[in-house]
Amino acid sequence: MIETFLESLHPDQHVLFHAIARHITDDMLDEISRADYGQDAEEHLFALRRLRDTGNFVEPMAWYRAKSLS
After folding, report:
1. Domain assignments of the chain as residue spans, ordered by start
2. Which residues contact 52 (CB under 8 A, 6 or more apart)?
3. So what's the pLDDT on residue 22?
4. Is the peptide bond between 60 and the residue preceding it cis, with omega within 30 degrees of 0?
């Protein structure tokens, strides 16, 4: 029932993304980029800023293998 109602509003994912992106600060992105113990924070910050500012992912997307904590 709720899905039918939400679809009736004709949501536009691009409009929603840009409306939210305006509220994401550089400080927020910096904190997110350092969440993996600060590793590769500069690369993460670059990709996050690009995503926020343009809506585009950095390609190819890098994958960082999780390191064992043991």
Report:
1. 11-70
2. 21, 24, 29
3. 95
4. yes
Q: Within 10 A of 32 (CB to CB), how many other CB atoms are there?
A: 14
pLDDT value at residue 39: 87
Amino acid identity, residue 1? M
Integer Cα distance of 57 and 70 in angstroms: 32
Q: What pLDDT, on a 0 to 100 scale, did the predictor assign at position 67?
A: 57
Q: Which distant-in-sequence residues (6+ apart) come within 8 Å of 48 by Cβ?
A: 29, 32, 33
Q: Residue 8, Cβ neighbours under 10 Å: how many?
A: 8
Distance CA 31, CA 46 (A): 13
Q: State pTM to two decimals.
A: 0.70
Low-confidence ranges of the chain (pLDDT < 70): 62-70
